[in-house]
Amino acid sequence: MKKGKTRKRADFASKAILGTIAMMLISLLMVYFSAMLIPRGMMMHEDEWFTARIFASFANLLLIAYLFYVYLKDYMELRSKFTLGLLAFLFAFSFHAFISNPLVLFNLGIRFGAGGGGPFAFASMMFTGFALLVLAWISEQ
């Protein structure tokens, strides 16, 4: 009986990994196609916060992917509406991680004002990262 449960959990885990990858690809494609509606502009202005924003954005994206995997695995096992709501939140939140990445914006040709938000844009990503870390910690409990 225990082997059947272990096999079922492994099956949920592998499906959750595939679902997480699909969610990230869908989010990236939606950002790409929505950016096609925005007129192409000048190059972004690099400031002293440019690299920090890139790092924070990628770190947030990795946390979102991890949390999506955890909650998708739980949802496939429990079928809870709360878990489904968390999955919807994380899916929407993945757009923030993609769109806030200066490299994504740069490659899409989206124009930024001088400074690109400076420390305020970086601070918002740091608070977002902190919130995601707390959510990841709670999810492991």
The unreliable regions are none
Shape: elongated
Quaternary: single chain
Strand composition percent: under 5%
Protein described:
- The structure is a single chain.
- This protein is an all-alpha fold.
- It has one domain (about 1-140).
- The protein is about 80% helix and about 0% strand.
- The chain has 5 helices and no strands.
- The chain has helices spanning about 1-35, 50-80, 80-100, 100-110, 120-140.
- Helix 2 (about 50-80) packs parallel to helix 5.
- The protein starts with a helix and ends with a helix.
- About 25% of the residues are buried.
- The model has no long low-confidence stretch (mean pLDDT about 75).
What does the secondary structure layout of this molecule look like, with pairings?
Elements: H1 2-35, H2 50-78, H3 81-99, H4 102-108, H5 118-140
Helix pairs in contact: 1-2, 1-3, 2-3, 2-5
Short description:
The protein has 141 residues and is mostly helical. 79% of the residues lie in helices and 0% in strands. It has one domain (2-140).
Notable characteristics:
141 residues, single chain, mainly alpha, 79% helix, 0% strand
